[in-house]
Amino acid sequence: MTQNPATPRVDAALIALRRILRATEQYERDLAQAAGLTPAKLRVLQILSGQEGRQATPTALATRMGVSQATVTALVDQLDRRGLTERRRSSADRRQMHVILTQAGTEALRQAPDALQQQFVSGFHALQDWEQSQLVASLERVAAMLNAQGIDASPVLTLGEIDAPR
Question: Is the pLDDT of residue 46 over 80?
């Protein structure tokens, strides 16, 4: 029986996909061990740390993360319980609530390993424009091949549900 010449390429593609999944799994374990955070919770803290006054509204967080406000509420509830964030009413508009990064949240950020997506973003920005376009097209094709194009996803590399409690 002769081997299909495409088989080594198929195997190489599947191995690359598996490596990506394993890197994501390993990062989540490292992050949980180092800082007790999920990638999504870390992203909330990162966004807050980059904001003026180290605060943002839940709506602004949801927009930046590409998730629903309900998802942000669940994440912030968990961060609040751990003392990493707190909510305060706006002094300018009492109807508005702000999520504020606490000192404990700043320390958790400091202890956390570099986010996997930060590593990706750095490498992606180092590519030429045509390479970026080609990579995005290829990844979108892979998603379509896996019938994943209809799955809602945010730009946070995590394997589980983004608002799942941990």
Answer: yes
3-state secondary structure of 142: helix
Tell whether the model's pLDDT for residue 58 goes beyond 50. Answer: yes
Question: Is residue 150 predicted with pLDDT exceeding 80?
Answer: no
Residue 55: name the closest of 12, 105, 16 by CA: 105
Q: How far is CA 61 from the centre of its chain?
A: 12
Strand-pair category, 55-56 with 97-101: antiparallel
Confidence tier at 30 by pLDDT (50, 70, 90) = confident
Average pLDDT on 111-121 reads 80
Which residues partner with 100 through β-bridges?
55, 86
- pLDDT of 31 > 50? The answer is yes
Single-letter residue type at 147: N
Question: Which phi and psi angles does 89 have, rounded to 5°?
Answer: -70, 145
For residue 85, report the phi and psi dihedrals to the nearest 5 degrees.
-140, 165
Burial grade of 154 (CB within 10 A; 0-12, 13-18, 19 or more): middle
> How is 77-119 classified by DSSP, letter by letter?
HHHHHTTSEEEEE-SS-TT-EEEEE-HHHHHHHHHSPPPHHHH
